[in-house]
Automatic annotation (TrEMBL):
GO cellular component, one term: cytoplasm
Name under which the protein is recorded: Ornithine cyclodeaminase family protein
Source organism, top-level taxon: Bacteria
InterPro entries: NAD(P)-bd_dom_sf, ODC_Mu_crystall, ODC_N
UniProt xrefs under Pfam families: OCD_Mu_crystall
Length: 337
């Protein structure tokens, strides 16, 4: 009977294949926004992420993200390593694999190098959050961090807002200088490199905190945040003061369930201490994208968007890549059984 079983093939996209797809900024944002909309409309299932720490003396851990998007007819599991000292080995800090499955049979559909997906979808969620929660006339961006996701944060934010001034800072001078040089080349505008957090953040219209800290430290001071700003922190280790939530008019997350699990996250201490809870959470971003709850309602609002990263965004972007790769004959078809 085994010989009569239907053949199962899966599509494999390696890093070169993903790059060959040459996704546009608009394609990335639209794909991720479609996933958020499905979440907001209750057409998706998301499970809290899980963590694996192989050895306590290794400088990193694994995140395991799981989800299902009904309109795409795909379930997915992404495993991503988060190793902040990988630069010492010439490797990205985040290396990932996305597995897509048929939700009716469990059959594998695709295996995709998700390192770029992680960076792209993170930048897209940052940009979509800002589009709904920042002032439309925001012209100054202050960005802390120069890791892989940082590039897509700045690039996709700038595609929406067209900033007059972009400031960047990170711990290592060589890292922040290389980051600025890449942005200047790709965006065609001057990037201001700062030597400290305050000069990067103070008075900015949009503040993104994507630092890579070894342990929590309140390096971003609440007093630097201007009224009417939008603040988007998502470092694994918190870099903000507990008082940050006190000045916010609206606080939004990508998924509240993610805030209740795991030891990591930019606002972990705020949840644990009761400063951020389900009662004062304005909305999940998907609810705003779906039109179920309002985003920014006045220029005077000071808003916070905390995103931890959703499997749904990985699945939505991976699904778009798979469709484009199939249409263009990119990647390899592997026999599963």
């Amino acid at each position: 009977m085994a010989s009569d079983a239907p053949r199962i093939d899966l599509h494999y996209l390696n890093h070169a294949d993903v790059q060959a797809l040459a996704l546009t900024d608009a394609e990335i944002v639209q794909a991720v926004e479609d996933g958020l909309r499905a979440q907001g409309l209750g057409q998706a299932t998301i499970e809290p992420r899980m963590h694996l720490v192989p050895e306590k003396d290794y400088p990193g851990h694994f995140n395991v993200l799981r989800g299902y998007i009904r309109p795409l007819h795909l379930a997915g599991v992404k495993v991503v390593g988060d190793y902040y000292r990988n630069y010492e080995r010439g490797l990205p800090s985040e290396l990932a694999v996305l597995n897509l499955f048929d939700p009716q049979t469990g059959a594998p559909v695709a295996i995709i190098d998700a390192s770029d997906i992680t960076d792209m979808r993170t930048g897209a969620v940052t940009a979509i959050g800002a589009r709904h929660l920042a002032r439309k006339d925001s012209k100054v961006l202050g960005h802390i961090g120069a890791r892989g996701t940082s590039y897509w944060n700045v690039r996709l934010l700038d595609s929406i807002f067209g900033f007059d001034e972009i400031r960047v800072h990170s711990r290592r001078p060589d890292s922040r200088n290389a980051f600025a040089a890449r942005l200047e080349q790709d965006l065609g505008k001057r990037i201001t490199v700062t030597d400290d957090w305050e000069s990067c953040v103070r008075g900015a219209d949009i503040v993104v905190e994507a630092s890579r800290l070894d342990q929590p430290a309140p390096l971003l001071k609440t007093e630097w945040i201007r009224k009417g700003a939008c603040v988007i922190p998502y470092g694994t280790m918190s870099a903000v003061e507990l008082s940050l939530t006190d000045i916010m008019d609206k606080m939004v997350m990508d998924d509240w369930g993610q805030a209740r699990s795991g030891p990591f996250g930019a606002l972990r201490a705020h949840v644990d201490s009761g400063r951020l809870h389900e009662g004062n959470l304005h909305a999940e971003l998907g609810q705003i994208v779906a039109g179920l709850k309002p985003g920014r309602e006045s220029d005077g609002e000071t808003n916070l968007f905390w995103h931890r990263g959703l499997s749904l965004s990985d699945i939505a972007l991976g699904a778009f890549m798979l469709r484009k790769a199939t249409a263009r004959g990119i990647g390899q078809v592997l026999r599963f059984r």
